[in-house]
């Protein structure tokens, strides 16, 4: 009887110790994978979107701050030669765009798809990509960052992993990013959860609108 009791106590201690280690290792159960840990840290740190110069499909150039001009910016990172996740990412972004109340589009929030393959993603290529996804080139723009140092810094700041495979393609993580009016990252969202992303953004905009009345 005592042997069974001692075994049960030992198992309980091991279990509790394991739970404590898991709690510490996942920052309070928030991070279960390397990617979720990275996302959690990003949202917690709320990094500022770095100074970059964007070039759009009309060959116009401007800084990110000039474009945002105090608006929320909903962002994806992609490259047009991608044949797997990027088309899905942009299609889903278009669906989020359609779910946001029209009164906010362009007035309070902009949508921005940023290519990390500026050499191939010329303005003409970006224009074709816009047409493929019904982007209007204004309230939803597709752009590139030509300066490699700026591009690398931007990706690093926002936790975007981009690894060339040596054959002209990239291995990369994908998500929806929401930048706030002050230029800081507010949310990193699962790009497969379209309704959740649209609801989260709409809720932020609705609360702000109500508070302004």
Characterization of the model:
This protein is α+β, with helices and mostly antiparallel strands. Helices cover 45% and strands 19% of the residues. The protein is built from seven helices and nine strands; from the N terminus they run ααββαβαβαβαββββα. The protein has a seven-stranded mixed β-sheet. The protein has a two-stranded antiparallel sheet with strand order 6-7. A hairpin with a 5-residue loop joins strand 8 and strand 9. Helix 4 runs parallel beside helix 7. About 9% of the residues have low confidence.
In short:
The chain is α+β, with helices and mostly antiparallel strands and 213 residues long. The protein contains seven helices and nine strands; from the N terminus they run ααββαβαβαβαββββα. About 9% of the residues have low confidence.
Mean pLDDT: 87
For the largest beta-sheet, the strand count, sense and barrel status come to: 7 strands, mixed
How many separate helices?
7
Q: Unreliable runs, pLDDT <50, ≥5 residues?
A: 13-32
The total strand number stands at 9
Written as H for each helix and E for each strand, in order along the chain, the element string is HHEEHEHEHEHEEEEH
Q: Please identify the structural class as seen in this structure.
A: alpha+beta
What's the multimeric state?
Answer: single chain
Q: How much helicity do the residues have?
A: 40-55%
List keywords for this structure.
alpha+beta, 9 strands, 213 residues, 7 helices, two-stranded antiparallel ribbon, 7-stranded mixed sheet, globular
């Amino acid at each position: 009887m005592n042997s069974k009791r001692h075994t049960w106590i030992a198992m309980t201690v091991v279990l509790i110790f394991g739970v404590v280690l898991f709690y510490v290792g996942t920052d309070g159960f928030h991070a279960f994978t390397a990617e979720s840990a990275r996302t959690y840290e990003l949202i917690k740190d709320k990094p500022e979107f770095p100074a970059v110069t964007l070039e759009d499909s009309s060959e116009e150039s401007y800084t990110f701050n000039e474009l945002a001009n105090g608006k929320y910016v909903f962002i994806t990172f992609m490259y047009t030669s991608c044949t797997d996740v990027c088309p899905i990412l942009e299609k889903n972004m278009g669906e989020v765009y359609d779910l946001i109340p029209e009164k906010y589009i362009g007035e309070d929030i902009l949508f921005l798809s940023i290519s990390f393959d500026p050499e191939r993603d010329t303005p003409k290529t970006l224009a074709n990509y816009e047409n493929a996804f019904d982007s209007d080139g204004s309230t939803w723009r597709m752009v590139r960052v030509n300066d490699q140092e700026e591009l690398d810094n931007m990706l690093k700041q926002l936790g975007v992993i981009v690894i060339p495979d040596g054959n002209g393609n990239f291995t990369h993580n994908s998500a929806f990013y929401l930048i706030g009016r002050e230029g800081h990252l507010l949310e990193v969202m699962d790009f497969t959860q379209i309704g959740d992303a649209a609801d989260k953004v709409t809720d932020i905009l609705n609360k702000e609108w109500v508070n302004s009345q």
